[in-house]
Automatic annotation (TrEMBL):
Transmembrane segments: none annotated. The gene is mnmG_41. InterPro entries: GIDA_C_N (IPR049312), MnmG-rel (IPR002218), MnmG_C (IPR026904), MnmG_C_subdom (IPR047001), MnmG_C_subdom_sf (IPR044920). One of its GO terms (biological process) is tRNA methylation. It comes from bioreactor metagenome. This is tRNA uridine 5-carboxymethylaminomethyl modification enzyme MnmG. The lineage of its organism: unclassified sequences, metagenomes, ecological metagenomes. Its cofactor is FAD. SMART domains: GIDA_assoc_3.
Length: 111
């Protein structure tokens, strides 16, 4: 927008444009995070899954997951002490391991 055109806009409008320009990157990242969280809520974990067999996870995280038995990856991500890195490792393990239907089954259910 040309500087001379800004004079025609009210102060609140100019302020909103400046805020949108300044924070657009943060807003986009927040939207991505919300979408990722919603995706994790749709990814159901196997009921009989033995978290103690996931050697890549710390012993503490394995114990917490085994104790709480979350139904979805989203629930697992909200357990105190379960880091985003642990969630990523768990997801990789489920996709690559003996749970090949993990992603397919859950993606079909959400479609």
């Amino acid at each position: 927008m040309q500087p001379e055109a800004l004079g025609e806009l009210s102060a609140p409008v100019i302020e909103q444009v400046e805020i949108a320009a300044k924070y657009s990157g943060y807003i986009d990242r927040q939207k991505d995070e919300v979408e990722r969280a919603a995706h994790f809520e749709r990814l159901r974990l196997p009921l009989d899954f033995d978290y103690m067999q996931v050697a890549a996870l710390s012993f503490e995280v394995r114990q917490k997951l085994q104790k709480h038995r979350p139904e979805t990856l989203g629930q697992a991500s909200r357990i105190s002490g379960v880091t985003p890195a642990a969630i990523s490792l768990l997801m990789v393990h489920l996709k690559k391991g003996g749970f090949k239907g993990f992603a397919t089954q859950n993606e079909e259910a959400s479609a």
